[in-house]
Amino acid sequence: MYCTLAPSLPLQEDFVYHWKAITHYYIETSDDKAPVTDTNIPSHLEQMLDILTQEESERESGETGPCMEYLLHHKILETLFTLGKADCPPGMKQQVLSFYTKLLGRIHQPLLPHINVHRPVQKLIRLCGEILAAPTENEEIQFLCIVCAKLKQDPYLVNFFLENKVKRPDPKRPGVEGVREDLASPDTGQPQAEGQAAESPEEPKSAAAQSNNNNYNIVTSLLNLTKSPDGRIVVKACEGLMLLVSLPEPAAAKCLTENTELCELLTDRLSAFYKALPMSMDPLDIETVESVNWGLDVYNMKDDAAIFTGKRALISFLSWLDYCDQLIKEAQKTAAAVLAKAVRERFFVAVMEPQLMQTSEVGILTSTALLNRIIRQVTSEALLQDMVYFLLGEEKGPETLASIAQNPLRHRLIEHCDHLSDEISIMTLRLFEQLIQKPNQHILHSLMLRSLEERNYLENKPQEEREPVENGQPHDFIDLEEDPLFVDDFSPENRLSSPDWLSNSPTHSPYHAKPDGKTEVHKIVNSFLCLVPDEAKSSSHVEGTGYDTYLRDAHRQFRDYCGICQRWDWRGTPKAMEKCDLDSPFFEGHFLKVLFDRMGRILDQPYDVNLHVTSVLSKLSLLPHPHIHEYLLDPYINLGPGCRSLFSVIVRVVGDLMLRIQRIPDFTPKLLLVRKRLLGLEPEGLNIDHMTLLEGVIVLEEFCKELAAIAFVKFHASASTSP
Question: Where is this region: Disordered (predicted)?
Fold first, then answer.
């Protein structure tokens, strides 16, 4: 005997059947204390989702089927929200959150534009994050994240979720009893009057129509969940916020920064993590601790062989700093500016500045090392800009000696480059070396360019008072090749070759030009190579200390700097002399003043300090700006009275050195021994007299070679790019 299977019910009948099964539970059951998992409600909800998914897959893209029409017209989501809010039966809130999440995740057609979707979704959002460590936290964050993802797909929909703070009263009776009465009313199969509008999606209000008086509830709920004790929930909430800040809608960006506590969350947590750090930390630990991406802040103290006091706290701080940085980098432009300004005012000024301005040397060292690490880590344009304004101020006009103390923090940091403590000096020099390599134009303008803008370091004489020029040079010009100080050093191994491009490089100096207007570059290069007298040179006696390494490094670093500076409005040639205010008194600026002062003491300073001073100056020399190049790398410029350049500072040092060499017996052998010790080619032995001086001479020789290589590379690059 054969039996015939009954045909499967049409999808809509099946869908209505499962919904009615749920509604009958509330009509027939008076005992609401049994958990929802003891009922068939979860199974019916899952079946409804399966039917909706199947219906969509069987229809043309974007076409709404009868089951979805039924869900919209009968306000099923509204009803489920009410049941979830009442958590009736116990655990129902979890089921409702899961249903909403799966519905939005599985259905491809846009649902949020429908009033009977986005209105209950908005209401459910308000329930999330209400209770800390709630049993529904996991479902809450999954639901919020799917809403965020949908808004990221179609950012204009966010206007539905900017809710006016003055709420309209809900005409329906709240609670389960009201729902029970509605569920018990006969189903005519017709859409409810209020739900009729759901047949066509609603248009969100335009950004212009949005009131300033809006709640951004999804942001508020996510902010609450960032306080969860469960780290996974916190990361998910942070990811949701990252999606929301990136939405391009201006009204949402305004609401985000003005009507939520996002700024407070970022800055308060950053401040709390910073304050949790030990007052004293080893700068090397701060520098070398591994980078931690904000979402991967996983640290096991037991497995860490390189443990140090405060490491856990430091990783937490750097991890949250990374989150702030990435959030601001992703944020809509106006929101990013507001968030960055909040970090500047509420963290940098309120928390960090007092630490940097303190007088305790241990405190200064620790806070400067932390600032250096922060500078290294910040990559977002807006946060970098506000951090730079915090450190250097926003002034753009030329510095004067009388005005250098107007910005106390900037003044203090620059002064720390010449601190009595060598450790503080070195750490601050490293901070500035890090800073000048950041892609921000104001850094270089503040520290250098505003002082060089008018080229008033040049001698200001009327044309008729200038020395007569013969063969492109003043009559009293001393050719370095004929100068007895340098003549012995023009052997082939001490020269840099001068290929054809050298005579094709742009003019960088108003004087000492050939008739074709081009500077004799090989003389500029060799003038640096020949600055240090022969008896004070030791590199030629040790293998591997030639120019090659400097040339390679200069080429790479100059290319990197050009990449950073290419979008800045830097002229390719110096400002025309007739447009410069040469009568204004020249001041090199506080930063260069301190660097030149330290450079002038290179023979009397510790080796490590000298390395950092020359490193900062070489980085500045690499910058592709014509005034920087002229001032730092052109030995032939005629300086005005009382003005000094990098070359003139080195010349004075060499003059002092030549006098001191004569008073030290066996100077050259001692110098060679010190160089070999520094390179690890000789074991440490007895102390050598004048050790600081000898180490200073070695740094000086290497620095002059480095400057020669930089000049060579820069002229070569400008020749190869000139038409």
Answer: 171-211, 497-516
Cα separation values, 370 from 127, 187, 591, 611, Å: 40, 68, 21, 21
Enter the pTM of the model. Answer: 0.86
Q: Is the alpha carbon torsion for 605, 609, 615, 618 positive or negative?
A: negative
Structure tokens given for 429: 């020099």
> Minimal CA–CA distance to 676: which of 668, 493, 614?
668
Closest alpha carbon to 398 in 471, 340, 348, 456: 456
HSE-CB for 15 with a 13 A CA cutoff: 21
Distance, CA of 653 to CA of 14 (rounded, Å):
94
**Length of the chain measured in residues:** 723
Task: Give the pLDDT confidence score for residue 574 in this predicted structure.
Answer: 84
Q: Are strands 214-216 and 162-164 parallel, antiparallel or unpaired?
A: antiparallel
Q: Find the helix or strand (DSSP H, E) in which 215 lies.
A: strand 214-216
d(CA 459, CA 71) in angstroms, rounded, equals 85
**122 near 216, Cβ under 8 Å?**
no
Within 10 angstroms of residue 629's Cβ, the number of other Cβ atoms is: 22
Q: Is the peptide bond before 169 cis (omega within 30 degrees of 0)?
A: no
For residue 467, give Cα distances in angstroms to 476, 576, 638, 659.
8, 20, 11, 32
Summarised one tens digit per residue, pLDDT across range 69-102 is 999 999 999 999 999 999 989 999 999 999 999 9
498 and 519 in contact (C-beta within 8 Å)? no
- The H or E element that residue 12 is part of is helix 11-28
pLDDT of 193 over the 60 cut: no
80-83 own/partner pairs: CB under 8 Å, 24+ apart? 80/120, 81/120, 81/123, 81/124, 82/174, 82/175, 82/176, 82/178, 82/179, 83/26, 83/176, 83/179
Q: What is the per-residue pLDDT across 468-504, written as a single tens digit (0 to 9) for each? A: 443 334 433 334 344 333 333 333 343 333 333 233 3
Distances (CA, A) of 683 to 295, 320, 363, 674, 689: 48, 46, 36, 10, 17
Residue 561, amino acid: Y
Q: Residue 176 — φ and ψ, nearest 5°? A: -70, -35
The kind and range of the H/E element at 166 are none
Question: Confidence class of residue 9 from pLDDT cuts 50, 70 and 90?
Answer: low
